[in-house]
Amino acid sequence: MDKNDVRATLDGAERLHDGAAVDKALARMAAEITVDVADELPLILCVMIGGLVPTGRLLPLMNFPLEVDYVHATRYRGETSGGELVWQARPHTPLAGRTVVIIDDILDEGHTLRELQQYCREQGAAAIRTAVLVRKRHDRCVPDVAIDYVGLEVDDRYVFGAGMDYHGVLRNVDGIYAMKEEH
């Protein structure tokens, strides 16, 4: 995909949520997380790469002591649909006895988040909370995926921006976009 293709993709996209809506959702999420875990010295676990933008924007809004680490586990590897989970990096911080807040960009079907929650349990986390900037509206979610904090919801479309990518690009777009639907 060259720069002209990227520009055409963005120009042809429909904005589902503008930057102000994303900011408002992140502020609400940060307030909810603060109420729940501010007294626990939580470990914020950023799910790379999509969770980088939401995590980076949430951190300054959470005005309490916390630690930050990351995990890189993906099912997509540049594709638009997921396959088997591939671990590229596990957290460096011990999880045993900790309150862990997993932050990711989107909940689609929940396979990756379910496996991350299971990993945290296996590592002895005392409590696990999960935050996603975006949740897709559909009935395909895997069972047993607990999502504690949701910023925004979108219809079941391929979305990008605010951390989510379109074939590896456009994560930095302010707002959340989808390709225009053909009618």
Question: What is the CATH topology assignment?
Answer: Rossmann fold
The radius of gyration computed from the alpha-carbon positions, rounded to a whole number of angstroms, is 16 Å
Terminal Cα span: 26 Å
How helix-rich are the residues, as a percent range? 25-40%
**Helix and strand sequence:** HEHEHEEEHEEEE
**Would you tell me the overall average pLDDT?**
91
> What structural class do the secondary elements suggest?
alpha/beta
Weakly predicted, low-confidence segments: none
SS element count, helices? 4
The main sheet comes to: 6 strands, mixed
What share of the residues does DSSP label as strand, in percent? 25-35%
* Order of strands across the main sheet: 4-3-2-5-6-7
Q: What characteristic shape results from the CA principal axes?
A: globular
> What's the architecture, going by CATH?
3-Layer(aba) Sandwich
What is the count of distinct domains?
A: 1
Instruction: Please report the total strand number as a whole number.
Output: 9
Name of the top-level CATH class: Alpha Beta
Q: What features would you describe in this structure?
A:
With 183 residues, the protein is α/β, with parallel strands linked by helices. 26% of the residues lie in helices and 30% in strands. The chain has a single domain, classed as Rossmann fold. The protein is globular. It starts with a helix and ends with a strand.
A few lines on this structure:
This protein has four helices and nine strands. With 183 residues, it is α/β, with parallel strands linked by helices.
